[in-house]
Every structure is written in C-alpha cells, then in structure tokens.
Amino acid sequence: MSAPKKLYIKTYGCQMNVYDSERMAETLGGQGYVETKTPDDADMILLNTCHIREKAAEKVYSELGRFKGLKAEKPDLKIGVAGCVAQAEGEEIMRRQPLVDLVVGPQSYHRLPEMEAKAGAGEKVLDTDFPEEDKFEKLKRRPKAKRGPTAFLTVQEGCDKFCAFCVVPYTRGAEVSRPADRILREAEDLVERGVREITLLGQNVNAYHGAGPNGDMTLAQLIWELDKVDGLERIRFTTSHPNDMMDDLIEAHGTCAKLMPYLHLPVQAGSDKILKRMNRSHTAESYIRLIERIRAARPDILISGDFIVGFPEETEEDFQATLDLVEEVKYGTAYSFKYSTRPGTPAAERAQVDPKEADDRLQRLQALLTRQQREVQDSMVGRELGVLFEKKGRFPGQMVGKSDYLHAVHVADCDAEIGDLRRVRIVSSGANSLAGELIA
Ligand code: SAH
Ligand code: SF4
Ligand code: F3S
C-alpha cells in the first residue's frame, strides 16, 4: 500500500468552520488522507476561510502567497480554498492567485472527494453551488475514532435575517435545519467516541425547526431529546438571535440540568435608531426585557454578546446608548468589533463613521466589557462548580477544564482524568482563568 497522503487544514472564523473542517478532514480520510499539523509536508492544503470582516478575508490572500515556495518545490501539491471567502469570491480567488487548484463553498463539501480527484488529474475545480441535498448526511465519518470530551455539532445553517452589515445570508445561504434523528444519531456517535459536552451550532441556532417524528421540532425540544442521551453530560448552543428566543427555550434554561447556564445573545448596539438601520428588528428595551425573562428562569446564567461600533451614521449619543445597555445587562463575556464595510451588503452604501472615532469608541466599549467580564469571573471565587476536564496543565499534576459558565479552571494536584466532570471549589481568579480544588 502506498503511504497516506497528507492534508493540512487551516481554519478561520466561527465554530461552524471548525466543525466543517473536522468533517472535511474525515471525508478526505476516505480518499487516503491523514491530517498533518504543518503545511510543509502536505500533499493538500485547505484554507477554511471567513468573510465576516475585511481583515478576515484579506488574510486568505496573504496566506496563499506564502505557499508559493512550497508549490514550486512540490508541483503535485494541491491548494484549496473552502469556507465563506470561497463562496463570496470564488472566481476572483482563482484569478488573483493562480496557485489555487480548488475552490469549494460551504454547501458543497460533500463533493470534495470528486473535486479532489479532478484536481489530482490537473484540473482547476470550483463549486459554489447551493445544492438541495443534505451535505452533512453525505460527508463521511471516520468509524469510531476516539475524540476529546467536547465537540461541536451543526444543527442549523444559513440565515434569513439580513442584518444590514452581514455577509452570512449570502455566504451560507438561506436558513436550513437538519432533521432531528440525524442530529441525535450523530450525538450518540460522538458520545460513544468519548464526547461529554456538545455545543449545537447554527448561525441562528435558536430558529432551529428541524423535522421530528411529529412535525417540526424547536431547539428546546431537540435539547430535551439530547438530554436523554446517556453519557452526554452537557449541552450548549450558539449563536442565538434575540427574536427567536422562544418561551420553551427560556424555560429549558431553568429546568434542563444538562443545559449549561451560558447564553450568547448578540445585541450589536444599544441605540434604537442604529438597531433599526441594522435591520435587527428588536429594540434595546425589548432585548433588556428578554434578558430579564431569561434571568428569571435561570438567575445565574452568564450572558455573552456581540457588538459593532462605528456602524454608518452612529453618533456619540447612539454609542452612549450602547454603553448604557451594557451597564444594564452586565455581560460575562463579549466580542466587540469595529464596523467593517462588506461589499454587497446594504450598509456598505451608507455614510461611514470616521475610523478614528470608531477606534476610540471600540476602546471605550472594550474597557467597560473587560471590567464586567472580570467582575463576573471574580464572582465565581468561593463557589462550587462543575468542571469538565479537557487537558493537562503546564505544571506536573495540574489539569485544566471548563466550568459550567465556560471559564477555564486550573486545578493543581488533580486526580481527574481528561473527560471527567467533577465538582470544584473555586479559590482564586487570575487574568484569564480561575483556579480551584477538587471537592472529595
Ligand atoms: N449569526 C450570529 C453571528 C454572526 S457573525 C449572529 O447573528 O449573531 C459574528 C459577529 O460578527 C456578529 O454578531 C457581529 O457582531 C460581527 N459582524 C458581522 N458583520 C460584521 C461587519 N460587517 N463588521 C463588523 N462586525 C461584524
Ligand atoms: Fe448575520 Fe444578522 Fe444573520 Fe447574525 S442574524 S448571521 S448578524 S444576518
Ligand atoms: Fe465567518 Fe462564514 Fe462563520 S463569514 S463567521 S466563517 S459563517
């Protein structure tokens, strides 16, 4: 038998890309590829890309440029671009960077084996269709390969919300939910491989409405089905839209023990004028009321958010409204970005905010969010929390895991194994993590 071919995948962007990369690697495993951690000895390089902000997209071209030398040394090396830049700029990539052999959009990954064969025969291949079939069903799984304790599982893809700044509806297409039975089978398979915590993924995960045995199911109903899977200890989901936060999902946060007390609920801005221009179809007030209802169901829930500053026509007063909203909600963690113009989106045509002003606002917002994040993390000291251990620490005997609230927790002299879920008393809070000790 010939030596296996080597595949190097580099992943940018969101968790969905992380999941897709795993699935692509497994699928190409069927073509005789094993993964390698460096491009230097690869027979195929795949960049799984992100188009969400300009910087993310530009990285791809500079990264591709770096492979010139490798390709010159090894003419059989195949270079592919997958993900959202592939979808948005497929033909331009081929034009701008002749060393690319293969371009594949997120909805066509199940066609990779054929594409790889064609590329192997010297053809240039591009597939950015939105085919009807369920790609996940067709993507191969490597039988019974052992896994770490946490995994992502995509349950919903695409978005119909068309926020005025965002490329996702164009790169990932219309909102589609996977049927519940396939998700459950995949979850059971993951648990058999050692997974203890599953994060359900979707660009609009709480809009999930996949087919179930008695009609469409909500995300909460799907979570309750997963709750029955023996050996699965924790369930998370991301990312949610405030408008799809259904009553049964809020309730599940109070009643489903496996559902972790953590919710990523992006708001983007605190000014109703800006929210309207973003096409978010919620107000600052309706968002705050929603958070109150969620906290009534699960008082200790950690709220996480996304923010954009410097959206076209944002004034200082609008920005102040964002700061006010943040003060009111109190975030446990948050991601904040300076608005980035995306070609083809409605906001790209509008009057842009002075970039210096936007930088200044971003700094002020981040200072506030960092302070809140720190306060919430520090408030864990003295509490007893569940920690799922994921890896060994830097020091002998030390183990590192994640708390229910997703904080990293270090435990010294720890007899827990990777994959164990144990009770831990938090004793101190550091720069980016907590320290604790095992209880019994
Ligand atoms: N589906 C998710 C996440 C989409 S992308 C949601 O609806 O929340 C992740 C985050 O990137 C967004 O929440 C937003 O804060 C940010 N983002 C999206 N487009 C952007 C742009 N053009 N400029 C800056 N940030 C952007
Ligand atoms: Fe983008 Fe808005 Fe859809 Fe989120 S809800 S993916 S921000 S269009
Ligand atoms: Fe980026 Fe596409 Fe995800 S644009 S954030 S990789 S959906």
List the helices and strands and how they pair.
Layout: E1 5-11, H1 15-29, E2 33-35, E3 44-49, H2 54-65, H3 68-73, E4 78-82, H4 83-96, E5 102-104, H5 112-120, E6 125-127, H6 135-138, E7 150-154, E8 156-157, H7 168-171, E9 176-177, H8 180-192, E10 197-201, E11 211-212, E12 215-216, H9 219-227, E13 234-238, H10 247-255, E14 262-264, H11 272-277, H12 284-297, E15 302-309, H13 316-329, E16 333-338, H14 355-378, E17 384-392, E18 399-403, E19 408-411, E20 421-429, E21 434-438
Helix pairs in contact: 9-10, 10-12, 13-14
The chain binds S-adenosyl-L-homocysteine, iron/sulfur cluster and FE3-S4 cluster (F3S).
Residues 52-53, 165-166, 168, 203-204, 239, 241, 266, 268, 306, 308, 337, 339-340, 342 line the site of S-adenosyl-L-homocysteine.
Q: How would you characterize the overall build of this protein?
A:
With 440 residues, the chain is of the alpha/beta class. It folds into three domains: 5-127, Methylthiotransferase, N-terminal domain (Rossmann fold), CATH 3.40.50.12160; 145-378, pyruvate-formate lyase- activating enzyme, CATH 3.80.30; 384-438, Beta Barrel (OB fold (Dihydrolipoamide Acetyltransferase, E2P)), CATH 2.40.50. 35% of the residues lie in helices and 22% in strands. The chain is built from 14 helices and 21 strands. The strands form six sheets. It has a six-stranded parallel sheet, with helices on both faces. A five-stranded mixed β-barrel has the order 17-18-19-21-20. Strands 7-10-13 form a three-stranded parallel sheet, sandwiched between helices. Helix 5 (112-120) links the parallel strand 5 and strand 6. Helix 9 runs parallel beside helix 10. The mean pLDDT is 95. The protein binds S-adenosyl-L-homocysteine (SAH), iron/sulfur cluster and FE3-S4 cluster. The site of S-adenosyl-L-homocysteine has 17 residues, from strand 15.
